[in-house]
């Protein structure tokens, strides 16, 4: 396993609770849209066994052409040891990234893509939307639906509806409105539905999409291939 140590080159306050940490790109480090990585703080590998409290599984919220590795996360007032350290971290400090891969690249099958997310889960979709804007080949359109009760919506410079690009972006602040919108979107039985959020959020969306007639193979989850069968089996559909 290769560990890349790199420095923070910028910290962006996206909202009062959400920050993006932009990291220098190591020379041979590559990734694609929908990628995730293990993001670790200094000291995580100081002992014989890794200190897992200093490691988090994070989505990369940028694309390679932006020349920085973006890690976007919510940091609340009461938070874990990991995020407490992130509150005090500075530009120039070193962090580590390793085990990078992508479970949710943009599918180009001539169908419409629906991006369903909760809160900071939208960070996973930012690179997919940028990739679509850059090259819309074999994608008939993209619709993003994000639920965030804080109402401090993320990346509104990108997630703004644009008719000329066949792109729509919608934000809601409660679950009732969110699930009503998902039902409407599921009228497209050919669509590809990406879902990013907590495990509970994923399971609720799987159950709803199945109920509306969307088959599992048209649902894209940020899970490894070996996890998908087990994860889908957790939802009992009547």
UniProtKB/TrEMBL annotation:
InterPro entries linked: FNR_nucleotide-bd, Riboflavin_synthase-like_b-brl
Protein name: Dihydropteridine reductase
Record lineage: Bacteria, Bacillati, Bacillota, Bacilli, Bacillales
């Amino acid at each position: 396993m290769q560990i890349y140590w790199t420095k923070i080159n910028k910290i962006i306050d996206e909202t009062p609770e959400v920050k993006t940490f932009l990291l220098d790109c190591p020379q041979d480090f590559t990734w694609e849209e929908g990628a995730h990585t293990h993001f670790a703080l200094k000291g995580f590998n100081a002992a014989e066994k890794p200190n897992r409290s200093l490691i988090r599984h994070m989505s990369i919220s940028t694309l390679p052409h932006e020349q920085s590795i973006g890690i976007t996360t919510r940091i609340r007032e009461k938070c874990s040891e990991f995020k407490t350290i992130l509150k005090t971290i500075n530009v120039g400090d070193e962090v580590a990234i390793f085990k990078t891969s992508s479970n949710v690249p943009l599918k180009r099958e001539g169908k419409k893509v629906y991006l369903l997310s909760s809160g900071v889960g939208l960070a996973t979709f930012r690179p997919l939307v940028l990739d679509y804007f850059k090259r819309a080949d074999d994608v008939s359109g993209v619709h993003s639906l994000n639920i965030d009760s804080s109402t401090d919506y993320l990346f509104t410079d990108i997630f703004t509806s644009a008719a000329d690009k066949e792109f729509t972006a919608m934000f809601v602040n409660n679950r009732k409105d969110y699930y009503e919108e998902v039902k409407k979107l599921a009228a497209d039985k050919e669509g590809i539905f990406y879902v990013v959020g907590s495990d509970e959020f994923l399971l609720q969306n799987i159950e709803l999409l199945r109920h509306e007639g969307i088959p599992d193979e048209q649902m894209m989850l940020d899970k490894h291939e070996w996890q998908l069968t087990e994860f889908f089996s957790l939802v009992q559909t009547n």
